[in-house]
Amino acid sequence: MECGQFFRYKRVGDWYYIHSGNKFFRVRQDSDRLEFSGADKDFIRHFFSLDTALKDILAEIPQDRYTKKAFHLYYGLRLIRQDPWDCLLSYICSIASNIPKIQRCLDGLARAFGREVRLGEVKGYSLPEPDDVRNVAARHAVPLLKETGLGFRSNYICEISRTADRRFLESLKSLPYTEAKGRLMELPGVGEKVADCVLLFSLGFVEAFPVDRWIERALRTFYFKGQKVSPKLINSFARDYFGNYGGYAQQYLYYYSRTALGRDFFKK
Questions:
Q1: Same domain, 176 and 125
Q2: 209: which of 29, 110, 183, 246 fits an S-S bond (Cβ 3.0–4.6 Å)?
Q3: Structural domains of the chain, count
Q4: Is the dihedral of CA 169, 175, 178, 183 positive or negative?
Q5: Do residues 198 and 168 make contact, with C-beta atoms less than 8 angstroms apart?
Q6: Do 182 and 250 reside in the same domain of the chain?
Q7: Which of 152, 181, 202 is the last residue in one of the domains?
Q8: SS (H, E, C) the chain
């Protein structure tokens, strides 16, 4: 839950309360047992990719000194299959943001324009649907969006709601990776990183390899002897080297660089 791919949760005691589309549920782990309520077993299995053969997936990724270390330290880390619309909003909020800022933006947006949901004594808010955002935009209420903490990102969200919806996002699943990425990048505010995040974390394109500052630093240090190289070269290298499951390699290396190596590694 806390590896940086997903933001719509809050922790209450040892429970994680999670928003995904119209679902509000909770999970906690006790040793090798996962407890949950608010969703059924099939949904939980799908959401956390528990129906994938993780060992086989990682075996397809080159086993160098860095991937081996990351796989050893964080074995069990999987890709969360996010709601596509929520994921798109989340990564628009990620532009020029850190994780606490992303969560504040999403929480502000949900509280202002989403729907209240409850699970036991815990209250939350769902993110607004595309129609909800379009209605806000139609009332020329962009300033209301800005007041939620979105700032300049509110313009992107309003524009996206006019041209994209759940049907559009679902239609991308049937396209080749490059074409799906190109279609996403036609949306306002969606660059390569945001597009790859949406493709990887919600649309099933496990070959997508999002490159942010952390992963760029990691790849330059691990595979380019610290030399400065272009983002284009890094993307090309990642696709060629990590292959069909590059998205899994990305998550393990991302979490490894942030957690095991820490901020001093990023500042070098």
A1: yes
A2: 246
A3: 2
A4: negative
A5: no
A6: no
A7: 202
A8: CCCCCCCCEEEECCEEEEEECCEEEEEEEECCEEEEECCCHHHHHHHCCCCCCHHHHHHCCCCCHHHHHHHHHHCCCCCCCCCHHHHHHHHHHCCCCCHHHHHHHHHHHHHHHCCEEEECCEEEECCCCHHHHHHHHHCCCHHHHHHHHHCCHHHHHHHHHHHCCHHHHHHHHHCCHHHHHHHHCCCCCCCHHHHHHHHHHHCCCCCCCCCCHHHHHHHHHHHCCCCCCCHHHHHHHHHHHHHHHHHHHHHHHHHHHHHHHHHHHHHC
Could you tell me which residues come within 8 angstroms of residue 36 by beta carbon, excluding any fewer than 6 positions away? 25, 26, 27, 28, 44
Long-range contacts of 94-101 (CB under 8 A, 24+ apart): 94/194, 94/197, 95/153, 95/156, 95/189, 95/194, 99/4, 99/7, 101/149
pTM of the predicted protein model = 0.93
Instruction: Give the per-residue pLDDT at 264.
Output: 54
Is residue 7, in this structure, part of any structural domain at all? no
Block means of pLDDT (10 residues each) for the chain, 268 residues, are: 93 96 95 94 97 96 95 95 97 92 92 92 93 73 65 87 92 97 96 96 97 90 89 89 96 90 55
Whether 133 and 159 share a structural domain: yes
Write out the two tokens for 260: 């095991």
The reply to whether 93 and 168 lie within a common domain is yes
Same-domain status, 134 and 242: no
List pLDDT tens digits, range 227-258.
888 888 988 999 999 999 999 999 999 999 88
What range does the domain containing 168 cover? 82-202
Q: How wide is the angle at C-alpha 165 spanned by C-alphas 187 and 131, nearest 5°?
A: 115
